[in-house]
Amino acid sequence: MIVVKLGGSVIKKWAEIVEALLEAGGEVGEKILIVPGGGEIADRIRAMNVDDERAHWMAISAMEINSHILLSLSSKLEEISAKNFEEIDFEGAGVLLPYCFMRSNDELPHSWDVTSDSIALWVAGKLGAEVVIKVTDVDGILRDGMLVEKIDADELTFESCLDLYSPYLMKKYGIDVFVCNGLYPQRVKDYILRERAIGTFVTCAEKKRKTGGR
User: Fold this and answer.
1) Would you identify the CATH topology of the domain 2-211?
2) Could you give the C-alpha distances from 156 to 52, 150, 151, 166, 167, in angstroms and in order?
3) Staple partner for 94: which of 39, 46, 80, 142, CB 3.0–4.6 Å?
């Protein structure tokens, strides 16, 4: 299974990205689980003077709305309205409806350090996925204005397009992340098919230690 965090920042390209995901997933024989971001709605919530507890659930509600928008784009996407991990069962490509699911599995901190990035990583970790593809509106992780093609999670000590809790979850579950620009949907497809595309590959040293990899 491949878990895709599909950012609201590229919502105008969602239909093309979904098509690329369906084609690539079919070619490699992998299930695709999509976790949408909260997009502009979450951005407005962040700007409000709301306590962390309420903001957390409001932002997840924004993700829920975007899940329904995403499902409206293709009949090939399966709605996943599970309340626990054992109920997540689908063929092809599915979209997680996160609100009730997160209410039933309330394990993550309630703060803006935890966004849909962390939720996608947490879900991937629980399901045993090895990689999360973060699709956003930048080419990858930038440092001093330059694209970083490869970096370890332990090195993410500066502000980036990944939320602050993501490195912790990557190390906890041994998950790698590929960050790419969804304004160019072919890049998403290229990574799934060939594991080579313009973007940033965030590696997890903990994963290497667990598997004995280099």
Assistant:
1) Carbamate kinase (3.40.1160)
2) 24, 11, 8, 9, 7
3) 80
